[in-house]
Amino acid sequence: MDQAKQSPIHIACIMDGNGRWAKRRGLPRTEGHTAGEENLAEVVRVCASRNVGWLTVFGFSTENWVRPPAEVKHILSLHKRLFGRVEELNAHNVRIQWIGRPFDEPGSKTPAFIQKAILQAIEDTAHNTGMVLTVAFDYGSRAELLRAAQRSRASHNASHDISVAEITSHMYAPNLPPVDVVVRTSGESRISNFMLWQIKGAKVYFTERTWPDFDAREIDNALELVHAR
Ligand code: FPP
Question: Per-residue pLDDT tens for 21-53?
Fold first, then answer.
């Protein structure tokens, strides 16, 4: 099929298996995350060169804070690195956005230096018109849905029922189109509190490859799935 004639695809990735990638090589888990961040930069480049309009990645979940402090610290530093890749993102015409528990709301755990990095990256790439890279940080789908339901109820008018459109309008990023294909690497076949509202109808691509080994060929396999009947 000629991808150029089709509407841009939304691909959402659960980047799993960094720890296993490192373990197989006798390296500390942190090295796996470092390789994972480097691979994400490559995945962004490949996706931007395909018919991908939206790439959403699960960088850090609301559940990940219980990991050992040194590992959390390392993953946070990698997010700072990712949000600092402005030159590359601009070169590929990629706009950054973020989803997660809003900084000023109860429960938010995003430290100030990551807040700053996120806001700066959003500002520095705001002019780009190509692919949108959405990073989920301090993100959990249930927290997102609960908040959307509460906000819909608060603005509820007795003359009408709460609608799908209303819930969608209260998602962290209401501009996100429905996901076309969800990817999870590393042989896990679970969705794990990721984009539960947005993945209705999505294809699912599970692969044995760990995230640092998720390459262009794998991306193309996932994209193929979107067009398969
Ligand atoms: C899963 O590996 C990955 C994460 C916990 C998310 C962190 C992702 C990265 C650091 C990749 C780069 C992304 C950004 C946005 C900077 P795991 O530790 O669960 O692997 P395991 O299941 O093999 O232990």
Answer: 999 999 999 999 999 999 999 999 999 999 999
For ligand 1, atom 7, which residue shows the shortest CA distance?
Answer: 59
Cα distance between residue 103 and residue 138, in whole Å: 10
Rounded Cα distance between 166 and 75, Å, is: 34
> What residues have CB less than 8 Å from 158, skipping those under 6 apart?
none
Q: Is-catalytic flag, 138?
A: no
Question: Does residue 157 carry a catalytic annotation?
Answer: no
Confidence band (pLDDT; 50, 70, 90) for 229? confident
Angle (CA) 80-82-85 rounded to 5° is: 110
Cα–Cα distance measured from residue 121 to residue 65, given in angstroms and rounded to the nearest whole number? 23
d(CA 105, CA 103): 6
How remote is the CA of residue 166 from the centroid of ligand 1, in Å? 33
Q: Say yes or no: CB of residue 151 within 6 Å of ligand 1.
A: no
Cβ 76 vs Cβ 154: under 8 Å: no
Please work out whether the CB of residue 212 comes within 6 Å of at least one atom of ligand 1. Answer: no
Cβ atoms of 136 and 55 closer than 8 Å: no
